[in-house]
Design goal:
This is Sodium:proline symporter. The protein has about 90 residues and is mostly helical. Helices cover about 80% and strands about 0% of the residues. The longest helix is centred in the middle third of the chain and has 28 residues.
Length: about 90
């Protein structure tokens, strides 16, 4: 009897009860889009500043170091976004 009451209560709870309201979902989407925009901006600035063609470095020249640098940037951006969302 007790477990069925707990289960029924868990099923009835709305999404907002657990802190996943529309505001938090929209802010998460906004921060994700902002993160992608910053990643693209960094790629453009890197191309202009260092006179590099990132696509050529990654695809044609198989430059592993450039791939690791871009991956590190993506992880760093994800950490910043996650920290902003969780605060």
């Amino acid at each position: 009897m007790f477990s069925s009451t707990i289960l029924a209560d868990a099923v009835v709870h709305d999404v907002d009860t657990f802190g996943f309201g529309w505001a938090s979902i929209l802010s998460t989407i906004l921060y994700a889009v902002l993160g992608f925009a910053l990643l693209i901006l960094f790629a453009v600035v890197t191309n202009l500043l260092f006179k590099l063609d990132i696509r050529k470095e990654l695809v044609k020249d198989d430059n592993v170091g450039m791939g690791v640098a871009i991956a590190g940037l993506a992880i760093a951006t994800a950490i910043i976004i996650a920290g902003t969302i969780s605060s």
